[in-house]
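ok trying again, last paste got cut off:
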Amino acid sequence: MGYAQYKELDSSGVSWLQKKPSHWRIKRLKFSTDLINNKVSVEDSPLPYLGLEHIESWTGRRIEGEIRNSEGLASSFVMGDVLFGKLRPYLAKVHLAQQDGLISSEALVVRSKDELDAEFLKYYMLSRDFINIVDSSTYGSKMPRASWDFIGNLPVLLPDVEEQKVIARFLDFKTAQIDVLISKEKVLLDKLAEKRTALISHAVTKGLDPSVPMKDSGVAWLGGIPVHWTISKLAYLSESLQTGPFGSQLHAEEYMEGGVPLINPTDISNGEVLENTKITVGEDVVERLSRHKLELGDIVIARRGEMGRAGLVRERNVGWLCGTGSLRARLNKKALNPEFLLYQFSMRGVAEYLSLQSVGSTMDNLNTSILGRLPVIAPPLHEQAALVLHLRKLSESIDSQAAKVGEVISSLQEYRSALITNAVTGKIDVRGFAIPQLAEGVAS
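nice, full thing came through this time. structure:
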């Protein structure tokens, strides 16, 4: 629906804010807030610790789940403070504290003065224009940060406090509505992912001919397989299994932009190996680490984090390097089709198996011995090829559906962001918007 416009506007004097309602004041943020810089030892404080990873990007919500403890110094805050993530500000980690606590020193603790409502401030700092201007000021290429010296000098628009509260209540209500729609679409995405996994698991373990007699695979999570298929360990079907270079072989100062990509778990997505232009190395490093080069048909597997995450090396990835957080499987292609193995990594049971077998006290971690013991299904090569064609079509169909759902989610998220920006910068007048009585509980 369309919203009313303010009738009387004047120039804000700020290019990215443009015009503002004539009765709104404009002031530097540091004159309407206080920066709270109270450092506390996490170990000595009874207060709960909040990490930036527990703040959802662009929504301001705290992500549910256990808050893990940290070490060293953190910033203390009280209920009503606004927490702003200064590390990678483009992530828009902004949260209005609902209780006292501690937060990572990578966040600013901002306390509004009487003329600035904390809810309104939260939305103002979440607005797209504010995030963009802060992000343009960052320093440091690998860990970009913003400073309070810059942020505190940014302008904040100030309707009277009652109007700020009206705008904040409007945004509470509307964003809650939008978030319900987004949640429904995300549930649909999850169902599509479950369907994809189930169909792949069935095809990979049962084949395409339902009349073929079956036998027990001997592996509980694989169940029965066609009687003429074999089960083997990945090590026996590979020419080599190898880790990425150890930390002692590759130093942080050797990373550069625009070099040869180094593939780590975050660079593996949906079976593909992606390029991160910031995590690359020069040709001299490639020459030194040449044994870690990727070849066509290699499988790169995440060594830590999400167990079972794997990607197939295609033509565009040849010559890239296996990173320190990854493992590389180079297969015996006379026994195993690489793409068929890739589908097996997305089956039910693989992630659980790898997680149970993994080592490490704080994070699951794989090595070549564990990976080599992974049970792998090996039908005759011609059946593997037929299954790959079948699974490609099946995956393309589901991926197409998921892409459409993803577009809906993106549109809703963009609408949410635009609505916040327009409301807190005076592009729309929501003073006459009536929140339905039944929805007051949602908006509170």
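cool. Residues 230-378 form a domain with the Adenine-n6-DNA-methyltransferase TaqI; Chain A, domain 2 fold (CATH 3.90.220.20). Residues 161-206 form the longest helix (46 residues).
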